[in-house]
Amino acid sequence: MELDSVMLSRILTASTLMFHAIFATIGVGIPIFIMIAEFLGIKRKDADLLVLARRWARGYTITVAVGVVTGTAIGLQLSLLWPSFMQLAGQVIALPLFMETFAFFFEAIFLGIYLYTWDRFKNRWYHWLLTIPVVIGSTLSAFFITSVNAFMNFPQGFDLVDGETVNIEPLAAMFNPATWPKVFHVVMSSYMTAAFILAAIAAFAILRKNGSDYHKKALRITMIAGLVFASGTALAGDLSAKYLAEYQPEKLAAAEWHFETETNADLILFGTIDEEGVVSNELRIPGMLSFLSGNSFDTEVIGLNEFPEEEQPPLWIHYAFDIMVGIGMFSLLISGAFIFLMLFKRFNEWNKPLLWSIVASGPLAMVAIECGWVLAEVGRQPWIMRGFMTVEEGATTSGDVGIALVMFILLYIVLAVFCVTVLTKMFKNRPPEAEVEKRYPNGIKE
Description:
Elements: H1 5-44, H2 47-81, H3 83-89, H4 94-115, H5 124-129, H6 131-153, E1 159-161, E2 164-166, H7 170-174, H8 179-209, H9 213-247, H10 249-255, E3 267-273, E4 279-285, H11 288-294, H12 317-343, H13 352-378, E5 383-385, E6 389-390, H14 391-394, H15 401-427, H16 432-439
Antiparallel strand pairs: 1-2, 3-4, 5-6
């Protein structure tokens, strides 16, 4: 691997995106849980749930602050590291880029109002209503920025004449065939990941403190939501497979080590591949790749050998696909097991093996998010803008990318330390039970 300006630009962009993905995912997912917790707290007159919403919101503000910095870094790097791409596509994708900024400020304004109006309304439902624009703003941010990524996979809404983009249709560019499956997948997986991160925190607290009602309520809420959103993510994955089969068959073929065009194509899980392209030690599900591609075992799946070698994505993306899908199935299993034990009272949903599995599901869900983005971005190689511009053509020729890489890595280390330190100090030695007693010593009254 040659560390030229192209490779250094890729490494810097990848490190920024992978670091930002942590905070972006939390930023999209957490608001809906704040909304659910406060809704149930008001409806049930439950002080534990109101404090739960309050503490989740406080922690959320720190991750939003760090996400703003990393998101700004991405915008800066688009212009500095990928100038040819921005020169070609900048006018076409200007609308969703601007709307993403608008959606963030929309969310931030209402988040500020939400945080500073606790206990200010006689009718608590008025305060809960403020969570709605926060959820809408965070979800719209995901929609607009994902539509930019979708455009890179399916460029449309313009004509290219003598290297210049003309006849630009911003809405056509934004609402391309990749947009809806990608947006649905990003939103569902963000909600799912947020559910399991919050569940992992609650499960760890139960294991450490032998369980309090506060943490048990938090775990029940997040596990129920986790099952719903994990199911939604599985559906999103199915829709994504169908999109790839129709519009980006080379990515699907590389991710599934599918080389020959055929019907009744097998789905390959795990395994290894040698330099000759021979797959071994794999688990094959007969006909399932064809079924996932078109709801029929007779669906023809295009093989990777149909594409020029220079346009084939790297085959190692198969491992990212396996990890992502494996963790998704694990999350479904864990949340389903917890709900099952919770519904049947003769079983104990608080047993240690299950709780430790839930603790593991939090960081694993974030690993799945990272693998999903690796699959999405590396699976588009060699294109930065599919069919129009390769990554090599879009990258800067500057010799200073290495310096920028070191500086940004140091920035991310500082931000990570800052985030962990502030969150730790925010909640350490401040048990939720004490906050419940302090704020609602006589319970919830009308």
